[in-house]
Amino acid sequence: MLHLLRRKPQFIFYLRPLFSLTYSTTTSSQLTPSKFPEYEMPTVTWGAIQGKKERLVSRVIITDYLKQLGIDVPDELAAVELPSSVDVMRERVEFLQRLGLTIDDLNSYPLLLACSVRKNIIPVLSYLEKLGIPRSSLGDFIRRYPHCLHASVVVELVPVVRFLRGLDVERSDIPYVLQKYPELLGFKPEGTMSTSVGYLVSIGVGPRDIGPMVTQFPQLLGMRVGTIIKPFVDYFISLGLPKGILTRMLEKRPYLLAFDLEEVIKPNVEILASFGIRKELIPSVIAQFPLIIGLPLKAKLSTQQYFFSLKMKMDPDGFARVVEKLPQIISLKQNLILKPVEFLRARGIQDDDVAKMVVKCPQLLLTRIELMKNSFYFFKSEIKKPIQELYDFPEYFTYSLESRIKPRYARVTEKGLNCSLDWLLNCSDQRFEERLRGVYIEEEVAGPFFVMGGKLEMPNNQFVSDGEEEDSDDEVLYRRTVSL
Fold first, then answer.
1. I need a surface site. Which of 229, 248, 266, 452 has the fewest CB within 10 A?
2. What is the pTM of this model?
3. Distance (Å, rounded) from C-alpha 343 to C-alpha 349?
4. Residues 198-204: contacts with CB within 8 Å, 24+ apart?
5. pLDDT digits over 17-49, tens only?
6. By C-alpha distance, which of 304, 355, 356 is closest to 327?
7. What is the pLDDT of residues 133-159, one digit of tens each?
């Protein structure tokens, strides 16, 4: 009977097609830790049946071997069954080293030494590789989440992957999601993950948006509703942010949930108020630039406020109005801000007037200089109105010269109409046609122009960056941090 137990079990040949393994008779001394060959079944798979005394002797020998490698044998291993042979432990350690794990990694999570190469490590690694995780990344994956080697592929890992697919996470994105948040493999689908998804859908997040949200920020599946997600939602609703806008924010930037409510978000809202942002406009500021809730806000606001005061003679109240209209300004590079300012100054516009124009239309600071030059040339050579018109309507520079300014100016010139820049540009095409058909314009000599209201429409291609659609340097940096 003892002779049979010592034989290599035949069932390993049936496992080989499933896990793409190659059986090898290479001895442990021939293995090179720096090389990562095909998965190999251990050459020593069975130990002798031992009595209590023999087991104690084997444990002492194994412990001495591990200590020679620099591995401290902690109390956690005292209650764990170790191999009956030091040869088995040696192959186990060398297999883990070939994955890329170090002695420090084994000291950080010594229970790895209790994982059988045959029963635990190879099945899990083979499944992860089958999902699409590159073999070269498996060592880092295990280092970040070593607990997965204790899991059953069929009972624990497969259900998590099926759950992700059920959320419409693309099959090709599964490796990315798991590498970004390996801890997902430790959750049960019917627990925290299902609760988080159910709550997000209940507040208005589109079911079809859950998959892209999870792909971008899989950590949300590990967040508890009662302690993280719901307090986050309740707080922003209490500020006055409409639920529909909040859910759109989360659909597009789910990583906002990673900001600590008490330590980061609430203090940042108080900082906005302390810099003169009106309380009723704070929800609008957050909706325009959601990342503002997690930035080192006091430092950024202080730096930009000083810069605006120094370079544009803008007072704190004017700076607050700029932030209300364009909160992305706090992360805009100062050399970019100066270019439009210097362009306006070069056209003879005084500092006070430049500051007023920026307060009225902060988007000026995002406008490309070459486009400002063309628009200004057209204003001086064709429109030929007093430059005061630009002071009153600096938004002129944010409209496309070719697609809006020239065609509309040609229409009003054809009709012999005299109108303000605001009347000409600050409306939709439909409203503009209605204006052309109506009696809305008084002669310039008769008094001030009648200015029709309308939503300012600014083409994206006019600007250095869109602010809402383009990611700022701060946002890119934060997203990289979250993915680590």
1. 266
2. 0.77
3. 9
4. 199/225, 199/229, 199/230, 200/229, 200/247, 200/250, 203/233, 203/243, 203/246, 203/247, 204/243, 204/244, 204/247
5. 333 333 333 333 333 333 334 566 665 554 454
6. 304
7. 999 999 999 999 999 999 999 999 999
Please, which residues bridge with residue 463 across strands?
367
What's the token pair of residue 399? 């409209």
Q: What angle do CA 287, 294, 250 make, to 5 degrees?
A: 45
Band (338; pLDDT cuts 50, 70, 90): very high
Helices 429-437 and 406-414, packing angle to 10 deg = 10
Domain spanning 151-258: CATH superfamily: Transcription termination factor 3, mitochondrial (1.25.70.10)
Residue 60: in which H helix or E strand, if any? helix 52-69
Token readout for 267 is: 């203090």
Which pLDDT band, with edges at 50, 70 and 90, does 438 fall under? confident
What are the tokens at 6?
């010592």
Residue with tokens 């709550």: 199
pLDDT confidence of residue 14: 32
Task: Give pLDDT tens digits for 219-247.
Answer: 999 999 999 999 999 999 999 999 999 99
Instruction: Give the C-alpha separation, 50 to 134, whole Å.
Output: 40
What's the rounded Cα separation, in Å, for the pair 42 and 28? 9
Distance, in Å, from the CA atom of 449 to the CA atom of 422, rounded to the nearest integer, reads: 10
* pLDDT for position 231: 98
| Dist CA 261 CA 61 (whole Å) | 52
Question: How far apart (Å, rounded) are the C-alpha atoms in residues 65 and 93?
Answer: 11
Q: Which two tokens stand for residue 117?
A: 């190469």
Can you tell me which residue has the tokens 């056209």? 347
Rounded Cα distance between 276 and 320, Å, is 5
**Residues 399/378, Cβ–Cβ less than 8 Å:** no
Which has the closest alpha carbon to 291: 250, 263, 325? 250
The sign of the torsion formed by the CA atoms of 236, 358, 433, 446 equals positive
- 298, HSE (Cβ side, Cα atoms, 13 Å): 8
Alpha-carbon span 335 to 150, nearest angstrom: 54
Of 9, 12, 16, the C-alpha closest to 46 is: 9
For 380, the token pair is 């001086």
